[in-house]
Structure formats: structure tokens, C-alpha cells
Amino acid sequence: MKLFKTLSILAIVLVASAFSVNTTVASGYEVGDIATDFKLKNIDGNIVSLADYTSAKGFIVIFTCNTCPYAVQYEDRIIALDKKYADKGFPVIAIMPNDPEVQPGDSMEAMKARAVSKGFTFPYLMDEGQKIYPQYGATKTPHVYLLEKTNKGNVVRYIGAIDDNYKDASAVNTKYVEDAVDALLEGNNVPETKTRAIGCTIKVKNNN
Amino acid sequence: MSILTLDDYFYNMKHTLALFVLLLVSCKTDKKTDTAQTNDIKTETSTNNDVKLEIHDFNGLEPYLNRTDDKIYVVNFWATWCAPCIKELPHFEALNANYKGKNIEVILVSLDFPHQFETKLKPYIKEHDLKSKIVVLDDVDMNTWIPKVDENWDGAIPVTIIYNKDKREFYDQTFTYESLENELKQFLK
């Protein structure tokens, strides 16, 4: 039965990837791809790149925002991820992908205010010009890309949700991101490399 | 057979078409088994402001996605917190009104949060006097049910399914009234 389950998950992943290859021109990263670095402005005014983190083993890149209720539900858990894994070499890098002209609640000022009120321990970057999220293939907030630093570059090891219960952190059955980071820290393969969750579409001009 | 990891499969993906087909079959079989095992349909209702909500987990919703009568079903996944959803919702309402009595059923599947049923969803339904069938999906295990709605859906809303007993289309996009009606007309041919 366990094998069966593994196979069915695998089949879903394969089907999903097959479809995205067939139907989309720029479908973003799949697990195994090398993720681009970036130079994005943080809420403190500094420019942040993955390359700045010379001693990191990888990154928990999370596309998130102020205004999506799912992202808000996960704020405390994102902070907890950074507190748990930054010291172990996997810091959280949060990127806000929305166009603030379309979604004023996600302006740089609003991002600063949220980061202060929640006590964000990680960079909260504005994807200015919305150039980075399409390369990653993020479609919604929150959307996690777990990267592992290798000599070839930052390899995508996991794409998807933080865990399997947006509503209640204490009722979570599977902590997808934690399981993935733990596996990498132990030198193992990530148990589940792609998951799906409901989220808010990334806000761009025209589609809104 | 040893269990390969997903990563291994992924890297070999392009060379394993046969395996892929095999797995697809396994997947479908497995799903059917799962559904049979967990067939306790949970339906809750609550009343407030004269609005009655029909609330389901995915097992309860699934029949709405798989009717086999002669109707055409237009199923839209939305939420009051989703701005693009709210923007296109009137087009679904208009379609529902304009095709009344023509064997077409519009179903609006709300993904609103349970803690906002009373404060957001019910007031919205009442204020906008929604006439289409509304069902609420409350099921946290999204990674399980999202691919059952459509393999190609990553979870961003809105999305829409139009189907009848012979044909099914999944739309990961927003609609104008014209574009929605045009898609419906493909089913009326």
C-alpha cells in the first residue's frame, strides 16, 4: 500500500509536469532545475542576493505577501521555519511578487509595517518589476521553492506548500517543507518533492 | 522492486514513458480505492442571515464534479477574499440567468475560510443576491484533492470546469461574459 501510495503521488507529479511541459511556454522551474539568483530590495532598503549567504547550505524561498489570507495564515509558521533552519544553513528568503499598484496592501511601506509588527527574522523582498517570480514559476502566494546550494548552483529540491493544514498549525499531519529540509540536512532525498495548495493568484496589471 | 525516490524518477522522466503510462493506471486505481475507503460524506449546514450554506469536504463535493445526467455543468472555484474571482463572479451569475431552463447548471464552489462564513461569505451571498447553486468546500488536505479536481491545477483560484457526461474542460483563467459564453457554446454544439 505504501508503494502504491508512492506510485500514485509520483504519477500525479509526472502528469503535472507532463502537462506543464506541453501547455505552457514559460512554466518555471521543476525539481532538479537550477534556480536563478536575484538582486531584490529588502524592507530595510538593502539589496539582497542569494550569493550574499556564503555559508548557507540552501534557501527556503517563499513567495508570499501581506494581503493573501492564506499567506497571513502561514506568517507565524514562516517565522518558525526561519528560526528553526536559518542556523542550520537554510534561511527563509521571502519575496513579495504582487504588483503593489494593483494590490496597495503589498506596497513596500505595508511590507515594512507587517515585518515589524510580526517580527520577521528574514528578508522580505519586493520583486520589483515582477521579473523573478515568473522565472521560478510561482503562481500564487504562499508558494515555496526549497533550494540546495551545490557546485552547479542552487538546485530546486521542493516546490509547493508549507504543510497540509492551512487552518490549524497544531493539526498538521505532514510538514512538507520541514521534512524536505530535514532530508537535505541528513543527505537524503526529499520525500515529497511537489505539493499543491490553494493560494491567491499573483497580482499583475491586466489580469485583475 | 526497489522504491526509487521521486527525484530519481524525475531525472529519468523523459526516458520512462512506458513506466509513466503504467503509473498513471496505478494512480487511477489507487484513487478509486481511496474514494471507496473514505466514503463518509460529511455535510454540514448552518443558518444565519437567511442564508443556508451547504458545506462539504472533498468527498462530499466530488459528486458535483462528476454528474452523468444530460446537463452541462459550469463549476467555478472562488472565494470572497479572491479579487479576480469576485470580478468574474457576475458573469457566472449572468450565464446562470441567461441559460435558465436550458439544461445548464452553474455551481459556485466557495473556498472561503470557515471563520469567515458568517462575517464574509453569507453577507456576500445575501448582498449580491447570488442565484447560482453555491456549495462550500472545507477540506484542508489540499494536496490530495486539488489534483483530483484537475491534474493541471496548482491551486491558484479562480478556476472553472465546464463538463457534461461526454466532455470536460478545465480553465485556469479568468473570464469575461463573452469568453465564458463562448466556452459554454462549445458544449452546446
Automatic annotation (TrEMBL), chain A:
InterPro entries: AhpC/TSA, PRX-like1, Sc_DH/Rdtase_CS, Thioredoxin-like_sf, Thioredoxin_domain. The keyword Signal applies. GO terms for molecular function: antioxidant activity; oxidoreductase activity. The keyword Methyltransferase does not apply. It comes from the Bacteria. Residues 1-26 form the signal peptide. Keywords: Signal. Residues 29-186 form the Thioredoxin domain. This is Thioredoxin family protein. It comes from Pontimicrobium aquaticum.
